Amino acid sequence: MARNGRRNANRPGRDGAVAQLPWRTIANPYAPLEILSADQLEAIHEASMEILEDIGIEFLGDDALDLLRRGGAAVDRASRLVRIDRGLVAEALRTAPSQVELTPRNPAHRITLGGNRINFSLVAGPPNVHDGLRGRRAGNYRDYCDLLRLAQSLNVVHCLGGQVVAPVELPAETRHLDCYLANVTYTDRVFNCSAIGAERALDGIEIAAIARGRTPDDLIESPAVLTIVNVNSPRRIDGPMGEGLIAMARHGQVVVVTPFTLMGAMAPVTLAAALAQQNAEALAGVVLTQLARPGAPVVYGAFTSNVDMKSGAPAFGTPENAKSILAGGQLARRYRLPYRSSNSSASNAVDAQAAYESQMTLWAAVMGHANLVYHGAGWMEGGLTVSFEKIVLDAEMLQMMTEVLVPIQVDEDSLGLDAIREVGPGGHFFGAAHTLARYETAFYKPMLADWRNFETWREAGGQTATQRATALWQRLLADYQPPPTDPAVAEALDAFVRRRKEEIARRAA
Amino acid sequence: MARNGRRNANRPGRDGAVAQLPWRTIANPYAPLEILSADQLEAIHEASMEILEDIGIEFLGDDALDLLRRGGAAVDRASRLVRIDRGLVAEALRTAPSQVELTPRNPAHRITLGGNRINFSLVAGPPNVHDGLRGRRAGNYRDYCDLLRLAQSLNVVHCLGGQVVAPVELPAETRHLDCYLANVTYTDRVFNCSAIGAERALDGIEIAAIARGRTPDDLIESPAVLTIVNVNSPRRIDGPMGEGLIAMARHGQVVVVTPFTLMGAMAPVTLAAALAQQNAEALAGVVLTQLARPGAPVVYGAFTSNVDMKSGAPAFGTPENAKSILAGGQLARRYRLPYRSSNSSASNAVDAQAAYESQMTLWAAVMGHANLVYHGAGWMEGGLTVSFEKIVLDAEMLQMMTEVLVPIQVDEDSLGLDAIREVGPGGHFFGAAHTLARYETAFYKPMLADWRNFETWREAGGQTATQRATALWQRLLADYQPPPTDPAVAEALDAFVRRRKEEIARRAA
């Protein structure tokens, strides 16, 4: 229980700073919600074994095919279809760790994936960015850095995802270097490598190592970075993704295998079938990590939602999405693997829909014992845009979830019978000693919610939560404090990025 | 599983009508979330026994004091403090039913409180009303009727609460008659009686009986109405509430005993103490119902949230609120009583805050196995205003919750291995036979969510969910169909209301 930190004394902050909860290690002390019966779970497992053993998974990369063949899988070179028997799966699950600790440049911001721990990441991958002042625009490096500053300012954002927005004005071949450098300059949190090819993954590992004053070899025993390997569902792991996976696993870094199983499009229209496919695809990736390096940390990723069958548009935060998140947790626990889920919404605005869709996925993730809630803050438009306001809205919702996870204290002191005896029928507790001793830290203090009465709220401008979020992110950015960096480390990072950019330019020339 | 109805074929509706799920009986097939350990639950129970046995509950009404004295409680006539020993509590819990069925004028809209059933009510009690076209205004009879029409048009609103808004222009002494008459004219659902005095309760029972073509005596074996008895916390049940409770119980109608335990104000600042107080107060009301009539249906109500300790303003949808809802469910289950919770928010606008605060209470209610989610649709401003848009927003969120409660189907057909075999790696399932046979009913079709891509959405006006809700309630009202009423019943209802208004006028003269 102490792992959730001392009572929720929201940090009052510097003068006028945004009040928020301190950085904490979050654990879910409650039992997970089991949405599938034991028989149903086994039926889905068995169906996924049939997919792996009989139908097959396509691996487009030669390295992956070689590893799988040498590992004992049945590889059809012509079709690139690989059939993996359950013995090979069992062997991979025997060596895959059930828990992994990631250490960023600031060891105080270590995170653990596994058990009942839960961590929230910044959104990853949107091509566009939006805020209430400047509207919607293409991703760019200036916004990239501001979004990192915002994440660093929020204690409930435990790690970064992949690129928080694509800085599209930067050269595509070296953009990842600029992003990694910004990650370790503006934040001190765990970040993501790109797994599109081995080179980008290795650059990320190198930068994480330099930022910690270590070598990539040191990081094998002390992982620093993670990557998402998306399966190109159905049943395909493409060449660059396979390469990225192998590079990360060989260097002992965390691979999150996440099938992209949108029901009705990239997966069947029924939840059972989509879960069976998701499971087969995730386990295929898990097997590849363990063939690359037995014991390499790997996370079971789930992203099963549905499309709108009228338009084919992806939908998120749906009831089906919530159920798949809960079921995915049961599958991950069956294999004793850490579990990754997401906080998602399809809404085009930071509005009530954005909030309720995100809540659907958040509650499901928490009740499903997700260890990593990817896209934890900032996702909108089904992932096509990162929003400054949504980051603030999500941070509030994440903080609230972490407070739900602080167990109720029940002891003589908290049962307060003396206070109940002291206050007469129909009286009030405002002045009771029991209240006065505790009122400053008794309750969660919101960052975004406005609890004033209607008249006061209206006189103060009658702003919606989204309008208030605009003011909040500006305040957070104004108060941003960069993490202290050793000048020698900063110099080494710059030198590495300079050298790598030169190499890439030479190769292109 | 069949109790949740056949797969979620959202009713397409008449031409252009709002698509929604059909009326269904909702059950929660999953295990409740146990937030308290068994020891903690017992400690709270023991503390509440000490409150009941040693500290005492004040009953301001003479009838209640008489019943309690004759039932064996220790009554101090001077202070009106009543001490109830645990034997008397146990005896009451022995006779109180664990489940009760309520039958409104349309028997197809019966609801059951108890077990794993879950029902959502319309909001009750706000003095004000708001919509996006006309703004905020005082409650009035015209809005009262429109709000009923809206509720009747929404299949997920299983019953009415107390007055959906106060029709303040009507005479206070007879207003309840106009409201009851509207309830059975514009809707065919279970409604609430006022329990402020016996007379209003009895008028409600009479009107419910006439609407069903029965007598009040017939309703003893077939309850039709319910009432909320709010404890005037701490530890006071006032005179009129006690009278209303006794009248309802004597006539076999459902009493929902709900302590008004806002932590820091009407209850101690700690969750454990507030829960102990809530429990003692709720059980005191339960005892009174069973003394009035052993076997009378009674529901364990919980309303424990916190106040903003800066301003004293009530807060809802907070983490503490969510935890108290979960814990309250455990207490109700300990006593095998049906459980009532709420869907609440303190937001002054139908915005992201309104959505996430409501979601916090909804998920807690569902995970805590609430049987009645009071204020299920329409509540804003901490209950001071009913909003047309919030009703639509809530209806969408409630529908989504009911879909989460439809268990995942896992069988050969739904596991779809043939479809997975048929679609090649990297392909898609849009045209698969498995998809084509199911796509129309596979997924929840939202009422409010907009899943179009950003460009299409923007070109169509770029409306937020709240703006779309304004169009939706207008459409629902335009399509409203009054429930058919036997003219003889309508005449009998009118005659009753006329007679009662005359009696009340004569008495006042």
Molecular structure report:
- The structure is a homodimer of 509-residue chains.
- Chain A has 509 residues and is α/β, with parallel strands linked by helices.
- The first copy, chain A, is 44% helix and 14% strand.
- Chain A is globular and about 80 Å long.
- Chain A starts with 37 loop residues before the first helix and ends with a helix.
Tags for this model:
homodimer; 509 residues; alpha/beta; 18 helices; 20 strands; 14% strand; disordered N terminus
Secondary-structure class of chain A: alpha/beta
Characterize the largest beta sheet of chain A: strand count, sense, and whether it forms a barrel.
Answer: 7 strands, parallel
* Count of individual helical segments of chain A: 18
Strand order of the largest sheet of chain A: 6-18-17-14-12-10-9
Total beta strand runs of chain A: 20
As an assembly, this protein is homodimer
- Gap between N and C termini of chain A: 58 Å
Largest interface: A-B, 123 and 124 residues
* CA-based gyration radius of chain A: 24 Å
Q: Low-confidence parts of chain A lasting 5 or more residues at pLDDT below 50?
A: 1-13
Tell me, what's the shape of chain A? globular
The average pLDDT value of chain A, as a whole number, equals 96
Beta-strand proportion of chain A: 5-15%
Helical content of chain A stands at 40-55%
Short description:
The first copy, chain A, is an alpha/beta fold.
What's the topology here?
Two copies of one chain form a homodimer.
Chain A: H1 38-55, E1 57-59, H2 62-71, E2 74-76, E3 81-83, H3 86-95, E4 99-102, E5 111-114, E6 119-122, E7 128-131, E8 135-138, H4 141-153, H5 175-186, E9 191-192, H6 198-211, H7 216-221, E10 225-231, E11 236-237, H8 239-250, E12 254-259, E13 262-263, H9 271-292, E14 298-301, E15 305-307, E16 314-315, H10 319-334, E17 339-342, H11 352-367, E18 372-377, E19 379-380, E20 385-387, H12 388-404, H13 412-415, H14 417-422, H15 433-436, H16 454-459, H17 465-478, H18 487-508
Helix pairs in contact in A: 1-9, 2-9, 3-9, 4-5, 5-6, 5-18, 6-8, 6-18, 8-9, 10-11, 11-12, 12-17
